[in-house]
Design a protein that fits this description.
eight-stranded parallel β-barrel; binds manganese (II) ion; globular; TIM Barrel; alpha/beta; binds phosphoenolpyruvate; 12 helices
């Protein structure tokens, strides 16, 4: 249950709600959002009498029952879907966004070619990792601060807002200086120290789903950001561990549709990491949008064969432009058979007799 309070509520008004709840043995957590103050409890509902006395307290706007464990992330907690703003881009609105760019920022030449390519292809935002979580410590680890500066240059030239990953609490400050959206990678989804720190920044966070996490665990990770005061959270499905040897991960398209049902937060899909194969990216991009995704996160490299990370799943610039043109086409037409006219009852009997 949430107690939603008017944003004009005084400190005393909020404390009165908190102590009323605590006197009944109910835990209360206060969150200040842009348009309201919310007192979050760990209860699904409150009983009738308590409900009445809480409603009558000054500055209380409404009581909202939330049955999910993720209280603020739950669709039950808000009337409208959340729209996250990054620069002049809206994520979670009417139209889907396409965030594209290289896996890693490798050099000025590489990043600028990718940035110009995705801009010309119609991307809404630019992605690129400066701090890279790599499975092997011997592989390219990213350019760090130098990569962030190159991303800022690319934004300056193309006008595209930037999404880039932050891996550690130590780097939050510097990444905030340069990025428009901070990505939390799949492997850091439950890095609670990082989530707590990112809850306090004034930049949106793109939270990728861990390949072994349930949708509930993913939304509870988002809850850390919301509960700490950052309402600008974007989710991204990027494939889960599967048994198939042919794809890097298994694209959990059901999770995209399910997350859209359970939360008001925007849900993106990343078919590049989900499959690890560039030939599958266009089909799964269309599938993700058909399942309701609010946008796509795609890896694009000017020369994928020589990429320092994730080349096999990266599209080149021409392939990206083709994919974008394909997204404008409707999904496959379906044969819809007209219902057969009902046969007269006696006629049906005759057929039955004939078959006996
Ligand atoms: C990435 O986006 O380049 C990345 C490392 O993704 P993930 O965290 O999903 O593996
Ligand atoms: Mn990658």
């Amino acid at each position: 249950m949430l107690v939603s309070m008017r944003n004009t509520a005084t400190r005393e008004d909020v404390l009165r709600v908190v102590s009323t709840l605590q006197n009944r043995g109910i835990q209360a957590h206060v969150v200040r959002e842009a348009s309201r103050i919310v007192v979050v409890t760990n209860q699904s509902k409150i009983d009738g009498n308590d409900d009445k006395s809480l409603r009558l307290l000054p500055a209380v706007d409404s009581l909202i029952n939330v049955t999910h464990r993720f209280k603020l992330a739950s669709i039950q907690s808000r009337k409208q879907r959340t729209i996250v703003r990054a620069g002049d881009v809206e994520i979670g609105g009417e139209t889907a966004v396409v965030i594209a760019g290289p896996c890693s920022v490798e050099s000025r030449e590489q990043l600028m070619a990718a940035a110009r390519g995705v801009r010309d292809g119609g991307a809404t935002m630019l992605r690129g990792g400066a701090y890279k979580p790599r499975t092997s410590p011997y592989e390219f680890q990213g350019l760090g601060a130098k990569g962030l500066k190159l991303l800022a240059e690319a934004r300056e030239e193309t006008g595209l807002p930037i999404v880039t990953e932050v891996m550690s609490t130590d780097d939050v400050e510097i990444v905030c200086e340069y990025a428009d959206v901070l990505q939390v990678g799949a492997r850091n989804m439950q890095n609670f120290a990082l989530l707590r720190r990112l809850a306090t920044v004034d930049k949106p966070v793109l939270l990728k789903r861990n390949p072994a996490a349930t949708v509930e665990e993913w939304l509870l990770a988002a809850e850390y950001l919301l509960a700490g005061g950052n309402s600008n959270v974007i989710l991204c499905e990027r494939g889960i561990k599967g048994s198939g040897a042919e794809t890097r991960n298994t694209f959990d398209i059901g999770a995209v549709a399910l997350a859209r049902q359970l939360t008001h937060l925007p849900v993106l899909a990343d078919p590049s990491h989900a499959t690890g194969r560039r030939d599958l990216v266009p089909a799964l991009s269309r599938a993700a949008l058909a399942a309701g995704a609010d946008g796509l996160l795609l890896e694009v490299h000017p020369n994928p064969e020589n990429a320092l990370s994730d080349g096999a799943q990266s599209l080149n610039v021409a392939e990206f432009a083709k994919l974008m043109r394909g997204l404008a086409e409707p999904v496959r037409k379906v044969q819809v058979r007209a219902p057969a006219p009902l046969r007269h009852v006696s006629q049906r009997r005759e057929i039955m007799h004939a078959n006996q």
